[in-house]
Design a protein that fits this description.
The chain has 203 residues and is an alpha/beta fold. The protein has a single domain, classed as Rossmann fold (3-Layer(aba) Sandwich). The chain has a seven-stranded mixed sheet. A hairpin with a 6-residue loop joins strand 6 and strand 7. The protein starts with 6 loop residues before the first helix and ends in a 6-residue tail after the last strand.
């Protein structure tokens, strides 16, 4: 699937994302928390604040029972929101060293209780127990396939598993793996889908 059908769509996407990077919502998010997540670059695109509110409101489970893991966590905006929502553990994985260090600074308050790892998501050992994975289209189909294989490799047959996928351009991989859509919203390229992993997916 090609994300952009024409150059006009690409130009609109870049314009909208830069506008979001300068948006009052993003700036206010940072001011309230004393962090820096809003500045958009070629290597980093923050998850839109309004979309995050939609996504977390649509999650059909108790966050206190789950570990939240953001693969490709960038500067850590989503991690901060997840910590505020009461997940029992919040983990971020980022391969870009500069973004990783920014995420560490943003999450350094002990009150946040956030862990950030500098490594390739495909090599990251998935946390045990009930798990929510968050993806903002962080990598290509091959890496996503490796991640899904890693999730299934631990043999936790009955482990509750949810995947939140923002801009799900490789959603067909989750469909093929047997994940079921439980909620969705937004619009391209900020469409989001919440998938539930059924037990047989993890065999």
């Amino acid at each position: 699937m090609n994300l952009f059908d024409d150059l006009g769509q690409l130009a609109r996407y870049v314009r909208d994302r830069i506008r979001h990077g300068r948006s009052e919502a993003g700036a206010q998010f940072d001011r309230e928390r004393g962090v820096e997540t809003a500045h958009w670059t070629l290597r980093y695109e923050p998850s839109p604040v309004d979309r995050l509110e939609e996504i977390f409101a649509a999650m059909p489970f108790d966050p206190a029972e789950f570990t939240f893991c953001d693969l490709g966590c960038g500067k850590g905006r989503v991690l901060l929101v997840a910590a505020e929502k009461g997940f029992r553990r919040v983990v971020g994985v980022e391969v870009d060293e500069s973004l990783y260090r920014t995420a560490l600074r943003n999450a350094e308050s002990p009150a946040h209780g956030i862990e950030v790892f500098w490594m390739d998501a495909a090599q990251f050992p998935m946390p045990r127990g009930p798990l929510v994975l968050f993806l903002f289209n962080p990598f290509d189909a091959d890496v996503l396939g490796e991640v899904l294989a890693g999730v299934g490799a631990d043999r936790e047959r009955n482990r509750p598993l949810w995947i939140v996928y923002l801009n799900p351009i490789h959603g067909d991989l989750l469909d093929d793996a047997g994940f079921e859509v439980r909620a969705s919203g937004g619009d391209d390229p900020t469409r989001w889908v919440i998938y539930q992993g059924l037990p047989f997916v993890l065999l």
